[in-house]
Amino acid sequence: MINNTILTPEFQEFLVSIEKEDIRTIGLKKSPFLDVTSAEIAQQLKGLQVAKHKFPTLYQTKGIYFPPSINLEQASSEATANYKASLVKGKKMVDLTAGLGIDSIAFSSTFDSVIHIEQNEQLSEIVARNVKTLNRNINCFHGSFNAYFQQNPHETFDLIYLDPARRDGSSRKFILEDLEPNILEYLDLFFEKADQVMVKLSPLLDLSLTIQQIPCIKEIHIVALKNEVKDFLIVLEKGLVTTNPTIFCVNLESNQEHYSYAFESEATKIPAFSGVRKYIYEPNVSILKAGGFKGICASFGVYKLHQNTHLYTSDQYKANFPGRIFQVEEIIKNPKKEIAKTKANLLVKNYPENIDLIKKKLKITDGGSITIIFTQSIEGIHILKTSKV
Q: Per CATH, the architecture of 74-262 is what?
């Protein structure tokens, strides 16, 4: 199980000294420690390198034991875990599918007591050692959550959290029934134990279908990190019956405002349309994933270019718009003369040709300070030379 030599000051100092080394090279070298193999050194080095960007608290703490790569990959980032923890607080919560424990560690800052449940014995032991090093109010249980509930039949919580895995071997479209555990089968049990349940789902799941299947969703959080969707969180409330949860669109580490709206209100919104004006706006990916294309016009005072173009425009600069903002410098009339063989960034939205064909035809290479937008408004096709604001 855990190799205690890895936790000694001597090994920890050695690990820091090789932090920038190539993992593959380290794995092939002879280990300088009698009780630690080269493969174990490579595993710890991989963990340290991943932690620097994904789990900064673990990176900054001496004596952390890192698990195999697959557990590092499957774990939430610290940034998204902290966002989850910011949504809830209380005395006691339980993480039913806890893994490396990054979410549990975050929840320990907003709950007095956290139960970490993990079926992988080695991973459970690693987390128990790490949370002791971190001095967190987390108790680790090795086994299934069913086993925990059976051993503690009268225990209740302020929050149940889980991150279900997808069942192997399924070739169907991603649906709730593909998850393990299948939350549809366990909701009654969960609500016997807690009044509030938070579930992390795959961004591939359909938003509308999820709301139809689970009528007690209070909130949905589409969480992006640096404009890449990471989490699709649903917050369930015992006794609630609704098809109109609040949708929160979040883009962490981007300095962008959160955008929220009532799910059913989006269908009633009528966007304002316009041809190209001085500024062009591209919503961040959390809004695009949520499908919040209409209400955003009134919320930020912008116009939609076209029914099928998810770009927006205005004459006045809207600094609080949650996405990228471009200033139109020039409308290109003759692309072969004006932008051929240019170095530029391309943004292609609702345009007759795809980005690869455009690059090939005009011999455009990636890079530079300008962005050329190929798009369509209610006034027709446009090629816009822009600068990012």
A: 3-Layer(aba) Sandwich (3.40)
